[in-house]
Amino acid sequence: MSNPLYDNLFGKYLDARTSFIETSDGKVITHGGFVAMAARLANVFKSMGLKKRDRIAIQVEKSVTALCIYAACVQSGIVFLQNKNRKMNYE
């Protein structure tokens, strides 16, 4: 089954060696390296039993990691819900 969102945003860069993003510590990640990281995370989600249309809520600051989680969710068909609140109430 095709995944147009993933294909257009990330999949087309699968083997690209061009610079994609620089981390806060100065490390440069290529497009292909980023897509590979997202694929590994998508496999982790799958091993946890998450599947297409499941929802995952994560409290995470804006970062390369957050973008990678988003890409993995897009690849897997999982709905990514980012909680931007500093405090969460667990009741």
SSE layout:
Layout: H1 4-9, E1 19-22, E2 28-30, H2 31-47, E3 55-59, H3 64-76, E4 79-83
Parallel strand pairs: 3-4
Antiparallel strand pairs: 1-2
Quick structural gist:
With 91 residues, the protein is α+β, with helices and mostly antiparallel strands. The protein has helices at 4-9, 31-47, 64-76; strands at residues 19-22, 28-30, 55-59, 79-83.
Per DSSP, what share of the residues sits in E-state strands of 2 or more residues? 15-25%
Overall pLDDT metric: 88
- Number-wise, the strands total 4
Q: How many separate helices?
A: 3
Quick one: biggest sheet? 2 strands, antiparallel
Q: What's the arrangement of strands in the largest beta sheet?
A: 1-2
Helix content: 25-40%
Task: Write down the secondary-structure element order.
Answer: HEEHEHE
What is the CATH C-level name?
A: Alpha Beta
Commentary on this structure:
The protein is of the alpha+beta class and 91 residues long. The chain has a single domain, classed as Rossmann fold. Helix content is 40%, strand content 19%. It is built from three helices and four strands. It has helices at residues 4-9, 31-47, 64-76; strands at residues 19-22, 28-30, 55-59, 79-83. Strands 1-2 form a two-stranded antiparallel sheet. The protein has a two-stranded parallel ribbon with strand order 3-4. Helix 2 crosses helix 3 (64-76). The model has no long low-confidence stretch (mean pLDDT 88).
